[in-house]
C-alpha cells in the first residue's frame, strides 16, 4: 500500500485480513491461537478401504472410496466417506482421528473443545444482543403505550370530575 494513499481511518479489520495481518478477534487470529494438530505416526495407523453406503447411487456402492482408520495403540476407529475421492477421504479421516485422539488426551484443552467454546460464547453474545434489542423495543413500545394511556385517563378523569361538578 503506497504511503501517499494510506488513510488510517479506512484501515479496518477487513482490509487487515486481506493484507494478511492478524487482527484481534478475527478468524485468522483465532486460528493462530489454536494449538497445533496432533501428528500421528503412520506406523500407528491401520488403513482400510471400504465400499461406501448411503446416498450416492451405484457409483458409491461399487467403488472402495470410503476410508477406515484404526489407531493401533488406542483401538480408536474412524470412518470417512464424505466425498467420492479416496485421497480426500483419507485426509478427512486422518484429521478426524487426530481430533478424536487429541480430545481423548487433552479434554477441554483440545482444538475441538476450544472451537466449541468459542462458538458457544458467540452464540451467547448474539442472544444477549438480541435480548437487549428486544428489551429496547419493548421499552419504546411501553413509552408509546404510556403516552397513549396518559390521554385516556385524562379523558376518563375529566368525565368523572365533570359528573361530580354537575351534582353541585
Describe what you observe in this structure.
The protein is mainly alpha-helical and 168 residues long. Helix content is 57%, strand content 10%. It has helices at 13-18, 27-33, 57-62, 86-106, 111-166; strands at 45-50, 66-71, 77-80. Strands 1-2-3 form a three-stranded antiparallel sheet, covered by helices on one side.
In short:
It is built from five helices and three strands; from the N terminus they run H-H-E-H-E-E-H-H. It is mostly helical and 168 residues long. Strand 2 and strand 3 form a beta hairpin.
Topology:
Blueprint: H1 13-18, H2 27-33, E1 45-50, H3 57-62, E2 66-71, E3 77-80, H4 86-106, H5 111-166
Antiparallel strand pairs: 1-2, 2-3
Amino acid at each position: 500500500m503506497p504511503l501517499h494513499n494510506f488513510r488510517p481511518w479506512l484501515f479496518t479489520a477487513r482490509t487487515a485480513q486481506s493484507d494478511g495481518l492478524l487482527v484481534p478477534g478475527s478468524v485468522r487470529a483465532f486460528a493462530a491461537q489454536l494449538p497445533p494438530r496432533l501428528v500421528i505416526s503412520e506406523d500407528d495407523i491401520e488403513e482400510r478401504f471400504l465400499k461406501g453406503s448411503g446416498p450416492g447411487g451405484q457409483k458409491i456402492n461399487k467403488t472402495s472410496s470410503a476410508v477406515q482408520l484404526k489407531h493401533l495403540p488406542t483401538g480408536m476407529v474412524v470412518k470417512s466417506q464424505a466425498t467420492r475421492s479416496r485421497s480426500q477421504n483419507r485426509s478427512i479421516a486422518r484429521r478426524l482421528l487426530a481430533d478424536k485422539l487429541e480430545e481423548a488426551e487433552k479434554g477441554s484443552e483440545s482444538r475441538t473443545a476450544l472451537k466449541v467454546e468459542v462458538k458457544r460464547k458467540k452464540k451467547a453474545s448474539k442472544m444477549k444482543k438480541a435480548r437487549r434489542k428486544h428489551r429496547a423495543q419493548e421499552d419504546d413500545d411501553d413509552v408509546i403505550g404510556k403516552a397513549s394511556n396518559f390521554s385516556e385517563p385524562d379523558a376518563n378523569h375529566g368525565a368523572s370530575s365533570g359528573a361530580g361538578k354537575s351534582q353541585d
